Every structure is written in C-alpha cells, then in structure tokens.
TrEMBL record:
PROSITE patterns: HTH_ICLR, ICLR_ED. InterPro entries: GAF-like_dom_sf, HTH_MetabolicPath_Reg, PcaR_PcaU, Tscrpt_reg_IclR_C, Tscrpt_reg_IclR_N, WH-like_DNA-bd_sf, WH_DNA-bd_sf. GO terms for biological process: 3,4-dihydroxybenzoate metabolic process; negative regulation of DNA-templated transcription; positive regulation of DNA-templated transcription. Residues 12-72 form the HTH iclR-type domain. The keyword Cell membrane does not apply. Keywords: DNA-binding, Transcription, Transcription regulation. Residues 73-257 form the IclR-ED domain. It comes from Diaphorobacter aerolatus. This is Helix-turn-helix domain-containing protein.
Length: 260
C-alpha cells in the first residue's frame, strides 16, 4: 500500500496544499466559504485563507467576500497538459470521422492511478446522467477505457491498485470481486479490446481499444459508448468494433510518425 509523501527536500508541502484547495472545488461544491474549504481539505482556517488569497491574487480564484469560486484561468493548468501533448490534435479528426460513421459518442482517456481522465471527447448524444467532458474522471476498473489501460499494467502493479480499490455496486451488473475483475482485465489484454456492459450505469455499454506508442506500450485508450435503447452490447461488438479498432490503430500510427 502506498504511503502519502512527506515534507522534505523533494516535497513542497505548501504547494501540495495549494493543489488540495483547488481540487476541493468541484461540481458538488462550485463555491465554498473559507470554513468549507478548510473542512474539505483538513487545513486550518488560517492556512486555507492564505492559500485562497494567494490564488485570488494570481487570478485563479474569485470571491464576493463570503464565497470563493474558481475562475476560468484555472483551465490554463489543465490545458497545459493538452498543449504539451500535440499528438491529441492528430487524434481528433479521426475521432470526428468515427462518430460520423457510427453515430455514437467517442472518447480518448489516459490512466491516473485508479481513475481515467478524459483528454478528448466527440459527442453525438447525451448517454450518461453525468455530462462528460475533457478533464472528467471515472473509476478505471468500471469503464471500458480504464480496463484497456489497466490491462496493460504489470501484474504486481495491477494487484497493488486492486488492494487500494474502493468497491461500489454501481449497477446489478457491476463486478466487484478481485477474481472477476482480474479475469476481465486479462480478457481485455488477450483480445486487444474491452466491452463493458452496464457495469457503471444501467443501459450504458461501451467498447474500447488501446492507443499505442512505437514500442507497443498502451499510452491511451479510445472508446465508443452507446445506450441500449439505440445500440446493444452485441451491436457494439459485431458492428462497431471493427471501425473502432481501425481508428485506434490509425491514431497509433500517427503517434509513431509524429514522434520520429
């Protein structure tokens, strides 16, 4: 089990606390009082106040003297990642073409510990109760994108993450025991794609394939998602999987060519 980093020569605690304050703002808490930020982060009121006022001075936070909220400038931090990875510019046109063919939403995501983070989204219909966009996070073990990314990990790394995994029964179809999860991850690794059927949300199915670098390492995943009222899991597999694989392989080739 991993331990939290401790202050030292390679760890700047004040910076870490600043990031903690930023992360305390989300869809459930878009604006907060000083006391609420302190409670969310475990900081003292004085500590939270210093960080909030620093962020306000830098333009990342605004306040009406009672409530604090993030400003659009905070997007600079997230888009710094996207702008530093120009390869995603190569993927988007191919994703647009895929959506036009299959008439379902298409996404690209990367792995961040126990979650996936969306780095590209091409919408066609709203398919989930949560409105996903670039930067959105979902539990990796219960998404097709996440399982493709997890399946590429070494076995010891995978089991270490499983040991830290909070279990939640999202739907009646959600697999939560280690044996089943490992079996489905091995299946995804062996076949080179993953079909997830209603494990995260009732009626939602998705199918994902890896995006690989020149060494064959999985660096991201691409998926198509559909609601059962329009596209069944079987249709995803039989009709849309070939086009998904074709697109993921084309993106992989572009990534390799770009880095030469």
């Amino acid at each position: 089990m991993t331990t939290a980093p401790q202050p030292g020569d390679t760890y700047v605690q004040s910076f870490a606390r600043g990031l903690q304050v930023i992360r305390s703002f989300n869809a459930d808490a878009p604006e907060q009082t000083l006391s609420e930020v302190a409670a969310q982060t475990g900081l003292t009121r004085a500590g939270a106040r210093r960080i909030l006022l620093t962020l306000q001075t830098l333009g990342y936070v605004t306040s009406d003297e009672r409530y604090f909220r993030l400003t659009p400038k905070i997007l600079d931090l997230g888009f710094a990642y996207l702008s530093s990875m120009p390869m995603w510019d190569l993927a988007e046109p191919l994703m647009d073409q895929l959506v036009e063919k299959v008439h379902e939403s298409c996404s690209t995501a990367v792995l961040d510990d126990l979650e996936i983070v969306y780095v590209l989204r091409v919408h066609t219909h709203k398919i989930m109760s949560t409105n996903l966009s670039v930067g959105s996070r979902l539990p990796a073990f219960w998404t097709s994108l996440g399982r493709v990314l997890l399946a590429a990990l070494p076995e010891d790394d995978l089991r270490e993450r499983l040991a830290r995994l909070p279990r939640r029964q999202f739907t009646q179809y959600t697999a939560t025991d280690d044996a089943t999860l490992i079996e489905r991850l091995r299946e995804a690794r062996d076949q080179g794609w993953c079909l997830l059927n209603q494990e995260l949300e009732e009626g939602l199915s998705s199918i994902a394939a890896p995006i690989r670098d020149r060494s064959g390492n999985t660096i991201a995943a691409l998926n198509i998602s559909g609601h059962s009222s329009r596209t069944s899991a079987e249709q995803l597999k039989n009709a849309l999987l070939p086009q998904l694989l074709q697109t993921s392989q084309a993106i992989s080739r572009l990534m390799v060519a770009r880095r030469r």
